[in-house]
Amino acid sequence: MKLEITKDWCLAAARREGDVEVGAGRLAFDPKPEIEGTANVQAAPVEAMQLAFGKLINFMRRKERWTIEELAKRAKVDAAELLLIEKEVRHQTEPYTVHQLASVFHLNPKALQQLSGLAVVRNHEVVDEAVRFAANSDTIEKLSPDQARAVEQFVAALNRLADGEKAQR
């Protein structure tokens, strides 16, 4: 007997798990549930989250005074994708890239997955923080002290909120 496990089967199994954190490989993908109202999942404004994701990566890179090419080398990802992350709100980032960026910038990978739109946002405070951050960040060459502080506060909030999700389970 030959058992064949397809990608669709795996995604359906992950959906059935609900709020249980399931990991596989380097980076677990937290798919959006097919059934509305499943386990208090809240629909997040994906574009606002992705905008905040792009701005966060841009600010973190500039804080380190790295070019996109330098970040690409450090994160071992494609510079073209980093450019799209920073400039294109609707760009669907690769899970590997999100994982590498989380590693390079010492960010919580689950929080960055949610921010990038790769995982379901289960905590409305994450959305509120992302929108607040995106709304208060201007595109300028050098980070002002207020922007640097805003980045640090946003990262701390993302990490705290992502860790709080684990504690609630």
CATH superfamily: lambda repressor-like DNA-binding domains
Low-confidence stretches: 25-30, 32-44
Strand content: under 5%
Structural class by helix and strand composition: mainly alpha
Q: What's the alpha carbon Rg, rounded to whole Å?
A: 17 Å
Number of helical segments with 4 or more residues: 8
CATH architectural name: Orthogonal Bundle
Counting DSSP E segments of at least 2 residues, the number of strands comes to 0
Outline the structure in words:
The protein is an all-alpha fold. It starts with 6 loop residues before the first helix and ends with a helix. The chain has one domain (40-168): 434 Repressor (Amino-terminal Domain) (Orthogonal Bundle). It has eight helices and no strands.
Annotation keywords:
434 Repressor (Amino-terminal Domain), globular, single chain, mainly alpha, 169 residues
List the helices and strands and how they pair.
Elements lengths: L6 H10 L29 H18 L4 H8 L3 H9 L7 H11 L3 H8 L7 H12 L9 H24 L1
Give the gist of this structure.
This protein is mainly α and 169 residues long. It has 8 helices and no strands.
